[in-house]
Amino acid sequence: MFKKEPNRLPLPNITPDGKRMFISLIILAVLLIATGIVMPSMISISRFSSITNGQLTVLLASLGQTLVLLIGGIDLSVGGVICIINSLAAVAMPESGLGIILFCLGCVAIGLAIGGFNGFIVTKFNVQPFIVTFTVNYILLGISQLILGRDGGAPAKAFTKVLMASFGPVSLGVILVVFIIVMWTLLRRTKFIRDVFAVGTNAKASAMNGINVVKVKLIAFAISGGCAALAGLWRTAQLGSGSPTAGNALTTPTLTIAVIGGTSMMGGIGGMYGTVVGAYILRIISDLLTFLGTKSFWSTVFQGIFLVATVVVCSVIDRKNRSK
Amino acid sequence: MSKSKLFMEKNGTTISRYFIVIMLFMIISILRPGFSSGSHVKVLLLEAAIIGIAAIGQTFVILTGGIDMSVPWLFTAGAMAAYVSGRMENVNSILIILGILLGGFALGMINGVAVAYLGVPSIVMTIGLNTILQGSVTGLTSGAVNGAAPNIIYTLATGSIFNISYGFILWMGLTAIVMLILRKTKYGRSLYALGNSRGVVYFSGIKRQRVEALAYGVSGLFAALAGMLMVGKTGSAYLGMGNPFQFESIAAVALGGVSMAGGSGSYMGTVAGSMTIAVLLAVLTALNLSPALQQIFYGLILFVAILAATIQNNRKMSSKL
Amino acid sequence: MADFEMRGISKSFGNVHALVDADFSANKGDIMGLLGENGAGKSTLIKVLAGVVKADSGEVELFGKPVDHTTPKAAMRAGIRVVHQELSLVRSATVAENIFITEDEKTFTRKTLKDLNKRAQELFEKIDVDDLDPSAYVNTLPLASCQKIEIIKALAFDFDVLVLDEATSALTEKDAEWLFNLMEKLAAQGKILIFISHRLQEVNRICTRIIVYRNGTDVKVADKGELSTDEIVTEMLGRKMSGYYPEKENLMQDTVVLHVEDIRNETLNGISFDLHAGEILGVGGLSGQGQTALFEALYGAAKYTGAIEVGGKKTRMTHPSVALANGIALVPEDRANQGLVLPLSVKENISLASLSEFVKGGLLNFKAENAAVDEMIKELQIKTDTPEVPVVNLSGGNQQKVVLAKQLLAKPDILLMYDITRGVDVGTKREMFNLMVEHCRKGKAVLFFSTDTEELTHMCNSVYVMYEGRFKAHLKDDEITAENIIRASVGESAV
């Protein structure tokens, strides 16, 4: 009766999420080769640095989104949080060094609080995460328009200067991405992350095993809010101005990135490596499209098709795995 | 359990929604005398009709336990198509309208097939389709269109009999049909069962995927119809005209007491929800609030309403378990 | 005072009093059998102890000290381990990860899988487990193994009280044997064991003492062997029970209503049989030997190759609707996920599988529907105030009857009954058995799978025993004995 698990892919002892990672890495490799062929000048460290700086906003928000997806939730308020923080930073950031640091900490605290609020409502009243975060997002967009009437404003000069610093051709953004990867490597085997996976796989079972499901979910949502706040700060530094609405368009890409990176919408499968890869995939595709002279609305169409295509493929794979 | 108690348990939520909208309307009418004038009420009801029609499909989809985020661009696509098609003078306008409705249904079915047959989570699938439509409609129309919708659409939106607009009458007719479908057809029964338990529906020999997919098709159809009515009302079509309806269609369903988890609630509730939204919007405008504040209040009210409805629903279920 | 005591426990859900001033006590080395009908309060008592449900009143003491059982975690810390009826494994994790999931460690040190695998292997050796691979993913294992892992999980850390709530229901016979040996060993070490099972034989065999619950409270405590099986059943029911099974009679005719030839799929390795009019054909064997796959294939809910002939007509079962249209109905295994839409009314549930019958001009004919539903309620004696009551308000036994009513309303000629008595009280069981006989008297047929060999011996005209996806034995007449079924179940030939 005892049968060893048959390896479906020729890979040694690989976890279900590892398999998906593998697929996204292949996509990335193919895209890089394509880029190398059509525009070889794009393959350089300085280009990589600028791409990274550009994509870090959405990547930061996607990290939080991934965590929430892992527990089986969804966070549609990341766009709203980015807008609020972006507006706030463009309007109210002090000039002094200490002031900037305190201000940034305050912004992250706001993000954590908003995320924590989402998590509280979701867990305490048992409301579907999409409807809570969707409604909260709507309110957040209203608030950010109160803070900043129209696109404009500017953060402290020192703030932009420090975050946009680069060490030779390597930008701070690249260093931060490396930092993210290292942190995930360290953290993913912790009790909390294992609990996240357990809750995402089966919340009821987790509760019976003594895992504090409410706490895990609440923290995941709070972290997502915090990540979105960081994304808002990064966007302010990167663009040097604020917008009360532009960040809202980033919610969909966070989902796309997480899903391309192999995180399941059903929870319990995925991780941050994939999300980092996903962020680059999305950017390279849009660069390729621009290079090919595609108009922006067709690029929008393609983004939608890409999201749908990945999620369809993943769902079909999921379904096959589950039926076995 | 007595019959009347059972009736209240089943319909109490819906009835309370009408109570709320009537109370709201009365209070405001006292504060602002012009509010309850015949012409204003007519406008309000037409607005409610557009929201309500856009929310028909949303109600179906939410009953299955899904969500349709693609209402806004299905709406805009319908509106644009109607606006452009007015130039085709030698084609019967009824045919044009039917064609557009069919197109909306077909687009909705793309969602439906992916969600029901391929197991794609509805939220991502419909966000994806919404994005695709946004790009496509923008690209195909190059941003601006000029034209005119078939006359019948204008008549439908602006004409009236005994000071009741045709649009509202159309809505009431549709409401009767929808209620008949939900209450008295095999499809309606299956829809409610599906929202509660997919497995049971399957093991009862019902083609669950067909039932589920159809709900998204219905959503596409009615989003397009609402878009056409909107063209009739405003006299023009523009990009992004459907955007408010992502929030409003969901809000109407939620305010109407339909469970966001699926399987319980009624379109009669959504009708009340649509009226509430129309009144609320009018009030927020009348108060001369800035758009930002309007959005905040509007969001907060919906937030509280959803929370209250969910708590009520949960309590009902937990007292039984 | 006993080593372990639960005193005056009360718990109500709305108007339903699940526990009323209930007591429970046990000493070190006891294996306590906790008995009672469905809804007697056993599960609630255990959930209170495990911290899953909060009691309205009452106290729990272990070795004279109060036990904190406010959350599952607190109860575990206090030395209480519960193997719940429902499986609670993380399916995308490995066996070893699942076993140690309750661990409290929070450090940044990397607990690699290797480390966990080693510890799991050590644990396996300690408790004589040799058929599980710690590094296997749970979603690749059969149900029986999952239940075993669930039990092992409870043993991973030190404890004083171990509760096994219907833990044997999905176990193979061999694993059940393993569990009983283990329980005796643990008891000898001075642990307190609480054993809940619907199978009286098991309780009689393993328990040193029994306690009977009825209507939410304890009614009888007895030592091993003090009460006969009949007396125990009487205590559980609170009334005298005469003849648990209907008298056996041969209603079988010669006409073949269902002919199955060489059905195969991932689980099934070539199944062939004939079902005759008036026949109750039993399917036995340990669970997880392909019975689910067989029943689902016959009902169109699983893919297969091979031929199925209904009433002489070859039919491809592609969807449950096809099966129903051909007069085959299934009473499924999983009541909550396959049988009933709990929040919907009794009426809506009963008519769900035969809605097309009531459609007239596209609309449902409520009058015809109500009449049909009322008749089913009367025929099956379903206890409900009105058909409009949500089915979730009904007791377990009545819910099972609603499932049956739903499938019967589809007017099947062939009833597939999959372990229908699992988790059902004795009274309802008896009514269901009578119903099976009545069904056959009308010249219709039943295919009956049960994990309870006694039910098969009492009910069936003949019994096929399944083993590894095929029929291992076909028992007829005098050959249908519990012993033969069990022998064939473990792969030996019948005597």
Describe this structure in words.
The complex is a heterotrimer of chains A (324), B (321) and C (495). With 324 residues, chain A is mainly alpha-helical. Chain A has a domain of 199 residues. Chain A contains 13 helices and two strands. In chain A, α3 runs antiparallel to α4 and α11 crosses α13. The longest helix of chain A is centred in the middle third of the chain and has 29 residues. The N terminus of chain A is likely disordered. By secondary structure, chain B is an all-alpha fold. The radius of gyration of chain B is 20 Å and the shape is globular. The model of chain B has no long low-confidence stretch (mean pLDDT 82). Chain C is α/β, with parallel strands linked by helices and 495 residues long. Chain C has two domains: 234 residues, P-loop containing nucleotide triphosphate hydrolases (Rossmann fold, 3-Layer(aba) Sandwich), CATH 3.40.50.300; 234 residues, 3-Layer(aba) Sandwich (Rossmann fold), CATH 3.40.50. Chain C has a six-stranded mixed sheet with strand order 6-7-8-3-9-10, sandwiched between helices. Chain C has a six-stranded mixed sheet with strand order 16-19-20-13-21-22, with helices on both faces. The longest helix of chain C has 16 residues. The relative contact order of chain C is 0.10. Chains in contact: A-B, A-C, B-C.
Radius of gyration of chain C: 24 Å
| Apparent shape of chain C | globular
Number of helices of chain A: 13
CATH topology of the largest domain in chain C: Rossmann fold
Number of strands of chain A: 2
Q: Which percent bin holds the helix content of chain A?
A: over 70%
CA-CA gap between termini of chain A: 17 Å
Task: Please state the structural category of chain A.
Answer: mainly alpha
Per CATH, the architecture of the largest domain in chain C is: 3-Layer(aba) Sandwich
The chain pair with the largest interface is: A-B, 42 and 43 residues
Number of domains of chain C: 2
Radius of gyration of chain A: 20 Å
SS element count, helices of chain C? 17
Largest sheet of chain C: 6 strands, mixed
**Unreliable residue runs of chain C:** 106-110
Largest sheet features of chain A: 2 strands, antiparallel
Task: Give the low-confidence spans of chain A.
Answer: 1-16
Number of E-state strands of chain C: 22
Biggest sheet strand line-up of chain A: 1-2
Structural class of chain C: alpha/beta
